[in-house]
């Protein structure tokens, strides 16, 4: 599955969109996410997600997609900075953890780091910088690589 996604090239993949409804560009989100293989694909999917979340089918609320994209980008920057500077994270490998991104038509956006089942404390004399792609047997997990690329995707989404 990883060879057919952006995990190898960008350090992250988009696995799902909960509560998603068909949009003019994406009728079947599950099928569309299986086709996401490039940076441009991630930008397109994030843009479609944020436009869907911002409008709420024009029933309630309604906020500019750019507002939500900026809020998402701000949250991602906060997580990235915290991760890069945390002494705790230098001592843990975090293979398999995830980011949960949520947004709604009332202007709420959140980014939450979840799925710590495979997070492990490293041996006493071992530290990682998370800026190297994961390979079997190494303790590096590539989280900073993935965060950097997801930030770039959202920045590009915002700039369009």
Order of helices and strands: HHHHEEEEH
Q: Which sheet architecture does the biggest sheet show?
A: 2 strands, antiparallel
Helix tally?
5
Structural class: alpha+beta
Kindly provide the radius of gyration, computed on alpha-carbon positions and rounded to a whole number of angstroms. 16 Å
Average residue-wise pLDDT: 86
Folded structure, characterized:
There is one protein chain. The chain is of the alpha+beta class and 160 residues long. Helix 3 crosses helix 4, helix 3 packs across helix 5 and helix 4 (65-85) packs antiparallel against helix 5. The mean pLDDT is 86. The strands form two sheets. A two-stranded antiparallel sheet has the order 1-4. A two-stranded antiparallel sheet has the order 2-3. The radius of gyration is 16 Å and the shape is globular. It is built from five helices and four strands, in the order ααααββββα. Strand 2 (98-103) and strand 3 (109-114) form a beta hairpin.
Features of the shown structure:
alpha+beta; two-stranded antiparallel sheet; 160 residues; 5 helices
């Amino acid at each position: 599955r990883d060879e057919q996604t952006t995990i190898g090239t960008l350090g992250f993949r988009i696995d799902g969109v909960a509560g998603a409804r068909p949009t003019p560009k994406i009728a079947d989100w599950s099928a569309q996410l299986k086709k996401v293989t490039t940076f441009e694909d991630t930008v397109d999917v994030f843009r479609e997600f944020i436009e869907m979340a911002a409008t709420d089918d024009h029933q309630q609320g309604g906020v500019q997609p750019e507002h939500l994209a900026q809020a998402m980008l701000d949250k991602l920057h906060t997580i990235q900075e915290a991760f890069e500077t945390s002494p705790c994270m230098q001592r843990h490998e975090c293979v398999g953890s995830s980011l949960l991104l949520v947004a709604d038509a009332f202007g709420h956006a959140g980014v939450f780091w979840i799925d710590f089942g495979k997070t492990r404390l490293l041996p006493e004399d071992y530290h990682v910088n998370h800026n190297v792609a994961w390979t079997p047997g190494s303790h590096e997990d590539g989280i900073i690589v993935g965060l950097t690329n997801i930030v770039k995707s959202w920045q590009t989404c915002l700039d369009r």
